[in-house]
Structure formats: structure tokens, C-alpha cells
Design brief:
Blueprint: H1 2-25, H2 33-47, H3 51-59, H4 69-81, H5 85-99, H6 104-116, H7 120-133, H8 139-156, H9 166-179, H10 185-193, H11 203-213, H12 217-225, H13 234-244, H14 249-254, H15 260-277, H16 281-294, H17 302-311, H18 315-322, H19 331-348, H20 350-362, H21 369-381, H22 385-397, H23 404-419, H24 423-436, H25 441-453, H26 458-471, H27 476-488, H28 492-505, H29 510-522, H30 526-537, H31 544-556
Helix pairs in contact: 2-3, 3-4, 4-5, 5-6, 6-7, 7-8, 8-15, 9-10, 10-11, 12-13, 15-16, 16-17, 17-18, 18-19, 19-20, 21-22, 21-23, 22-23, 23-24, 24-25, 25-26, 25-27, 26-27, 27-28, 28-29, 29-30, 30-31
């Protein structure tokens, strides 16, 4: 903290010194202290992620401040992050000759400008500038190679493969063949979808889009029937709905393989996704803005920006971005409602957020089993188990009874029955779920733990838990369940070993602390037992019933339990 303050003061003093020297050696009177104050306010706003406010301060400064490349670079980034990409490009063009601006992102934006204007010969000049300043072995080099490859494709209308890029290379090839309207296109997209390493489900949209552009509607319909309405991504769920309603034009309305801009927009979305997966959300949004600039029709990509803002706790920016999704946008409008609900839940609590949700549902035209599935989860989270069951029932009636999603909803509904202590229905749902997806670790864990709590089928529970543990050896809930099973079979040494492992992963969990306290007592470590039981009392997550049990343990130990 002190180091950061010192660093800021040092920059300000240094800046003041150079500014003072500047004013003594030139007749330029553009600079004054107010501009300096505004500029540092801009830097602070940029650092805190408030790029709208940063731009306000940046724009109130004189052009003299932009003579400092590092500050000008932040100004450009703020413009891009506020989706003012064209203005950022114009600023770079205006100041480039005077300031010798020469960094990767500035040259990238000039490259994008030439591509958008179909000046592919000019792109090569900007690529040379990019190559000189990029950092080898980083995403910058990947971006450069992609732009170089695709610019050659656009110029020569020939495949220009990038080798040694693994699955990324396969994605790039699929789009190159698609651009050339080559018959191999569908094979490349199909290979991506059938890949066992990684999730390439997004490319089902482009596969379907290409089939529709070839007027292979029946093939697209057959494929869409296999799309899971519960666990598919937003984009794929939307695609399924479009095909069901035969709204085939909606695909070409947002993307075309014949468009250079559309293809590069998708590749920049891919880059944005890579940065987001590395938790570099701001850079992710930077490249997403470029993607949106190249293809503003594909507004569904903005859901990535909303997730980034959510993870950065920037609620105002999140609420602003999701307003792009309207009632006509189907599942994306439901996504918007859920996000607004989550924000309201965190700020206003259960009652107001549920009132908002119910009001939106009354006017919601789009219907999908996914909505009822989500509602079931929402009500379950609020411990309104009867309402959660009602919504799970509707979702179950609308999906394939042999699907994994059906098994998943049975598991969740079974959990709601279990919380209501309707154990007959709970066991029936959980066992039915396991018939559909045998050895599913979380269902095995839930059912076995429920039996342990009821002190029934202990040996069978142990076998089920060990089977779950074999699949999920780092899951603290499953580890805790295994430890508790050993405790109930009076193998306290084994119980301690597993429960200690769970405690290391979840040191503040009240159930794990309670369990570990119990095993400490059985191992005649009374002081340690009291320590962990007291930890339960100080936990905000522990319910009143559990705390009452703990108070009895602190008074009497486990003598009467």
C-alpha cells in the first residue's frame, strides 16, 4: 500500500519537474496544473476499471499530455474499452507522426482499420510494425500470426495454414475453408465438435450456419434435435430455437463466412475468450470491443463482456452491457433478467429480487425448459423447496427422458425432496438419476451421505462414496462424506485422515469443522474437539439447529450422542 502511494507521488513529482522544465523552454502555454490533476484522475479511473470516467478526464486534458506515449496508450485503451474504437484509431492516426507511437495495440488498431476498409495491401505495412514490437511467445505473437495468415487469405484467396497451433490451427483452418466456400468446411467444423479434448461446442453455431447457407435445412434440423436444451451454451440454445421456428435468416443476419470482418471478429472473440480464461478480464474486454467493432451484428458476443464485468464486480457496467439483449432475443433476454436478478439479490435481498423476477416472468414471451430449470435452482437456493420442485417438474416434462439433463434435474429435485425430509421421493429420484447416468459422483455422494445421516445402508454408502472419491479426489464435499462414513463405522483413524484433508480445503465450512471436532473427541483429543466446535459457532453459515447441537457438545461432549 505504502509502496503504491510512494510510486504515485514519485510519478507526480517527476511529471511536475518535466512540465516545469518544459514551460521554461517553450512558449507553448497549453499546460497547467488543472490538466495534470485531470490526467491523474483519468489514470486512477482507468486503473479502477471506470473507463467512462477515465475518458471524461482524458478528454479534459490538452494534447500536450498525449505527448507522453504511456499515458496516450492508456487513453487509447480507455476509448476502446468504451467501444469508441473508431475514435481511438483516428486519435492514433493524428498523433502517430508527431509522437512516434509504436506499440503493439496501436499498430493492431491501425491494422484493423485497414482490414475494415478492405485495404489488404496496406495491412502488410502495419503487420511489419506489429512484428517489430510484439513480445514473442505471448498472445501478441498469436494475434500477429492470425492476422498475417488471414490477410494472405483475403489477398490471394488461398488457404494459408498456421502450423504448430494445435486445435487453434484447426479452428483457423475451418474458417479459412468456410471463407473460400470449400466443401471441406463442414468436415472441419464436425471434427472440432467431435474432439474429446476441450469444449468446442461454440463451433456448432458456425457448422449450422454453413449448412443453412448451403440450404441443407433438413440436416440442420436433425442436428438441432440433438442439442441439449438445459446444458447447452446460450448461443447454441438460441440456434436450436431459431431452427425449430425455421428462422434460418437469423444466422446470416449476424454472421457470414463471406465477410472478412465477420471472420476476424470471431477470431478476436476467441482471443478475448482466451484472456478471460486467464482472468485478465480487462484485456479480454479490449479485444472483445475490437470484435464488436468488426461485427456489431453479433451482439450476443457481449455476454462475454457481461461475465467479465460480473467477475470484476462492476455492476454498473454489467447493467449497461446487458441492456443490449431485448425481449426478441429469446434466451439472451432471459440471461439478462437473471443477471439483473442476481445484482438485485446481492444489493436488496430475497424479497425485492424475487418480486422483480416474478414481474419479468409475467411478461416473458420466450419459453424454454431452461427457464424452469433455472427457476428451480433459484428457489432451491432460497430454500423454497416446494416451488423448486414445481419448476423442476415443468422442466422434466419438456425434455428427453433418456438424457443426461433429465438425470441432472432428477438429482436436483431429489435434493429438494431430501431437504423437505420426504426421503421416499428423494431416494426414488436419486436412484432414478443413477440409472440414467451410473456412477455419477455427485449423485453417489448426495444419496450416500443422506443414508449416512439417517444411519441406514452404511456399508453400501461406503462403497458408493469410495466410487465417487475415485473420480473426484479433490472435491472437499466428497472427501468429507468419505471421512464421515469411516466415522460412523468407528474407523476413527481413517476418518481423521479424510476429514483433515477436507478441512484443509474448506477451513471455514461449519459441517466439516463439526465432523472434525467429533472425530477429535473420539480420538480423545478433547481440547482440539472444542476448538473446532467453537469454530462452528462463529460461522455465519451455520444454522440455528446446528449451533444448538454444538452447544450441547461443548457442555456434554459426545457422551449422550
Amino acid at each position: 500500500m505504502y509502496f503504491r502511494i510512494f510510486k504515485i507521488l514519485f510519478i507526480i513529482i517527476t511529471f511536475l519537474y518535466h512540465s516545469s522544465s518544459f514551460s521554461k523552454t517553450t512558449e507553448n502555454q497549453d499546460f497547467n496544473q488543472r490538466y495534470l490533476s485531470n490526467y491523474f484522475s483519468a489514470l486512477v479511473s482507468h486503473k479502477n476499471g471506470d473507463d467512462e470516467l477515465a475518458l471524461k478526464y482524458f478528454n479534459s486534458t490538452k494534447s500536450i499530455l498525449r505527448n507522453y506515449p504511456i499515458y496516450f496508450d492508456r487513453y487509447i485503451k480507455s476509448l476502446v474499452l468504451e467501444n469508441n474504437v473508431e475514435k481511438a484509431i483516428n486519435q492514433i492516426k493524428f498523433f502517430k507522426s508527431e509522437n512516434k507511437i509504436n506499440n503493439f495495440q496501436a499498430n493492431l488498431l491501425l491494422t484493423i482499420d485497414s482490414i475494415k476498409k478492405n485495404k489488404f495491401d496496406k495491412v502488410n505495412d502495419h503487420l511489419l510494425d506489429m512484428e517489430r514490437v510484439l513480445v514473442p511467445g505471448t498472445y501478441e505473437e498469436i494475434i500477429y500470426q492470425i492476422l498475417k495468415s488471414f490477410n494472405q487469405l483475403f489477398l490471394n484467396k488461398k488457404i494459408n495454414e498456421i502450423k504448430n497451433y494445435g486445435k487453434l490451427g484447426k479452428i483457423l483452418l475451418a474458417f479459412q475453408y468456410c471463407y473460400l466456400e470449400d466443401e471441406k468446411t463442414n468436415n472441419y467444423f464436425s471434427d472440432l465438435l467431435n474432439s474429446e479434448s476441450g469444449d468446442y461446442s461454440r463451433y456448432l453455431f458456425f457448422y449450422l450456419s454453413n449448412l443453412i447457407s448451403e440450404k441443407k435445412y433438413d440436416t440442420a434440423k436433425i442436428i438441432s434435435l440433438k442439442i441439449d436444451p438445459i446444458n447447452s451454451t446460450l448461443l447454441i440454445s438460441q440456434s436450436k430455437k431459431w431452427i425449430e421456428k425455421e428462422n434460418f435468416d437469423n444466422f446470416s443476419n449476424i454472421f457470414s463466412c463471406k465477410s472478412e470482418n465477420d471472420i476476424l471478429a470471431e477470431l478476436f472473440f476467441l482471443i478475448s475468450n482466451l484472456y478471460s480464461s486467464q482472468e485478465d478480464y480487462k484485456i479480454s474486454n479490449f479485444y472483445l470491443s475490437i470484435s464488436n467493432y468488426l461485427n456489431p451484428k453479433f451482439k450476443f458476443n457481449l455476454s462475454l463482456a457481461s461475465e467479465n464485468f460480473y467477475l470484476m464486480n462492476q455492476d454498473l457496467a454489467l447493467k449497461k452491457i446487458i441492456k443490449n439483449f431485448e425481449d426478441k432475443d429469446g434466451i439472451y433476454y432471459w440471461y439478462r433478467i437473471k443477471k439483473e436478478f442476481e445484482i438485485l439479490k446481492e444489493s436488496e435481498g430475497k424479497e425485492k429480487s424475487l418480486s422483480f423476477l416474478n414481474l419479468k416472468l409475467k411478461n416473458l414471451k420466450f419459453k424454454s425448459p431452461k427457464i424452469y430449470f433455472d427457476l428451480g435452482n433459484i428457489y432451491k437456493g432460497f430454500e423454497e423447496y416446494h416451488k423448486s420442485i414445481n419448476n423442476y417438474n415443468i422442466a422434466l416434462n419438456e425434455i428427453n427422458k433418456e438424457s443426461e439433463s433429465y438425470a441432472d434435474i432428477l438429482y436436483r429435485r431429489g435434493g429438494s425432496y431430501e431437504r423437505l425430509k420426504d426421503f421416499e421421493k428423494a431416494d426414488k429420484d436419486l436412484l432414478s438419476s443413477l440409472k440414467l447416468v451410473p456412477d455419477q459422483p455427485y449423485v453417489l455422494n448426495y444419496l450416500a451421505y443422506s443414508w449416512l445421516e439417517r444411519k441406514i445402508k452404511i456399508d453400501q454408502s461406503m462403497k458408493m462414496l469410495l466410487k465417487a472419491y475415485e473420480q473426484k479426489q479433490s472435491d472437499p464435499y466428497i472427501i468429507d462424506s468419505v471421512g464421515w462414513a469411516y466415522y460412523l463405522t468407528e474407523d476413527y483413524e481413517s476418518a481423521e485422515r479424510y476429514l483433515k484433508k477436507a478441512l484443509l480445503i474448506m477451513p471455514e465450512d461449519p459441517i466439516v469443522n463439526d465432523h472434525y471436532g467429533d472425530v477429535m473427541w473420539k480420538l480423545d483429543k478433547k481440547l482440539q474437539a472444542n476448538y473446532y466446535w467453537n469454530a462452528v459457532l462463529s460461522s455465519d453459515e451455520a444454522g440455528d439447529e446446528l449451533k444448538e447441537t454444538i452447544n450441547n457438545k461443548l457442555l456434554f461432549g459426545l457422551t449422550n450422542m
